[in-house]
Amino acid sequence: MTWRRLHIITKLSLRRILRTLKIRATPWGIFHKLFRRLRTKLLSKLDTDDKYYRQLIYNNMDNLHKCIQKGDLVLVEGRTELSKIIKHISSSPWSHVAMYVGDELIQKDSPYRERYKKEFGEKAGNLIVEALTGKGVVVSSLDKYQDYNIRISRPYKIRKNDLQVVLQHVINSIGLKYDQQNIVDIALMLMPRWLVPRKRRNVQAWLGSKNVYQVICSGMIARAFQLVGYPVSPALSGPDNGSFHKKTNPYGTALIMRHYSQILPRDFDLSPNFEIIKFNIISAGTFDYRALPWGIEEGPA
Q: N- or C-end of the chain: fewer Cβ atoms within 10 A?
């Protein structure tokens, strides 16, 4: 029996059942409704916290508030089941990324001023914009990730006017929905070719739902940087043929802009254009390892 014949038989059978039950709906309408419910329950399950999550480094939020700048990225090692999957398929500890916008949303000319001053109070000057599963693009307080393993990444030598364009694009994304299909496509893209023989390897391919109103955390931010031509993790066109000067092009070859839907949180960490800001100790400038209060030595696991 061919797939086409099976498809027709299934469709006619569903129509007969619905007609018998006097339900005025198409077979595929019922199927998609059930599928959406199943997807909602699955995502709800994946959003549960991992009880074995362990914070490895204490976050000094006072130091962070002093050194963080608008446009900096907050890489997060998430604690949900979905975060574990993203970390696994990307071979990276970072499963989420948010952009720090500071007090940009409570400026005098901002339409969000009264809303977020009321919602966050004293914390309204330290805000981030992020895309969350089930919620879409939302605004949160930076202190939200105090008890998480995080890393601060800063775009190196980006021009002020370009940074403003990046910030504005991310702010304009508030309210967009989360693109769950993008996570599935990225997982398939990272799998071995023998397992998914027809997967797309083109660096310019569009992954996800192909809907500009649906985004993921890293794709939303990557698109903002691509608008001003700032490279996050571009593909290289080939070996150096001697025509590219190292001072003007440190990559040594022509670049190919990867589609923003392919960018993962790890790309902001691995990118040579983003600085890692060590806010806990190094940025503070005071550190004496001999004065550390060591406790009882931990035994073998």
A: C
